[in-house]
Design goal:
This protein is mainly alpha-helical and about 325 residues long. Helices cover about 45% and strands about 5% of the residues. Strands 1-5-4 form a three-stranded antiparallel sheet, with no helix packed on it. The two termini are about 20 Å apart.
Length: about 325
């Protein structure tokens, strides 16, 4: 008996007229699959632009870093221009890496904020970071509140279409368990910067770069905390190698259903992937059998999988 043919599972093959639950009900072996957390929007070039080369590095490692530094610098010149390039690189490095994220709509706006900071447009970067924080906060509140109508917090927020006073949505989303504790801390810090920068304050102009950088780092941490595709978070299965998967008991959580599952392929432990014309394509076996695996059993099946059995493109 020959091995079953791998099944191509790209987003294009999903029937858009079916809900996520209806799509999953059509999968006979859904108890042995999990959602792969997937997000590819990141930028780690800041790590390659560090000119420091420790003495204890081996010669070949030092030479590789020099080549990477030269290449990264050339990319910065092409993107931002030669004039003032050293200051631009300093700004770029100061922001750190752009984090992995499962969402696209805030990634594009955060990219614009970062670009403004690099070229020295510190006030647009500052207010842009604050505005993006407010946009995400409002988005979360409007998307989530319908799932918490029985809570005492709901009566305080159900009539509002937007929230200028951040304290109410921050406290509410914290009470509902949507915002993680570290994200709450960052949001409260960003709220102070927002009030100081948006409302008239003569001191703002004296600390534009510092405040803009602080706002960007707060925003970066919020994105890392709430939308990271690879991290230690309550909704991820622990200790999987190379990839991250959504825990079974979080598949019905309203936050995960809204922001993660629509972007996360539903795969078994032998799934494979390869670059395609429209981005990454995912491949999988058609049937993993009956019964349900616990998250630990799925993790063991994935971690111990035989690389020769991993699904891939055919033909």
């Amino acid at each position: 008996m020959s091995d079953p043919e791998p099944t191509r599972i790209t987003f294009e093959t999903v029937d858009p007229t079916l809900s996520l639950d209806e799509q999953k009900r059509l999968v006979a072996d859904s108890g042995r699959r999990r959602h792969l957390s997937w997000g590819m929007d990141f930028d780690s070039r800041a790590l390659s632009l560090d000119p420091e080369i420790p003495d204890h590095w081996e010669d070949q490692v030092k030479e590789l870093h020099r080549r990477n530094l030269q290449s990264a610098r050339g990319g910065m010149v092409a993107e931002f221009g030669e004039r003032g390039i050293d200051a631009k690189i300093d700004n770029f490095v100061a922001m750190g890496v752009k984090p992995f994220s499962v969402l696209a709509h805030h990634n594009a706006l955060f990219h614009q904020v970062r670009q403004a900071f690099v070229i020295g447009s510190y006030y647009p970067a500052l207010v842009g970071a604050c505005a993006l924080g407010e946009r995400i906060l409002n988005h979360l509140m409007l998307d989530m509140r319908g799932h918490f109508t029985a809570t005492p917090e709901y009566k305080k927020v159900y009539r509002k279409d937007s929230f200028d006073d951040w304290r109410l949505p921050i406290d509410t989303l914290e009470a509902w368990g949507i915002l993680l504790p570290d994200a709450v801390v960052e949001y409260r810090a960003l709220m102070g910067l927002r009030h100081r920068s948006i409302h008239f304050n003569p001191e703002t102009t004296n600390a534009l770069r510092d405040d803009a950088l602080a706002a960007i780092i707060h925003m970066r941490t919020i994105i890392e905390q709430q939308f990271a595709s690879h991290a230690v978070r309550p909704w991820f299965i622990a200790n999987t190698l190379g990839h991250t998967f959504i825990r079974k008991d979080y598949e019905d959580h309203p936050y995960i259903r809204a922001y993660f599952l629509p972007n996360c392929p539903f795969v078994g432990p032998l799934f494979g992937m390869a670059p395609g014309k429209g981005g990454w394509e995912f491949f999988d076996l058609p049937d993993y059998g009956d019964g349900d695996w616990t998250d630990d059993e799925f993790a063991a099946a994935y971690n111990d999988r035989d690389p020769t059995l991993v699904a891939g493109p055919t033909g």
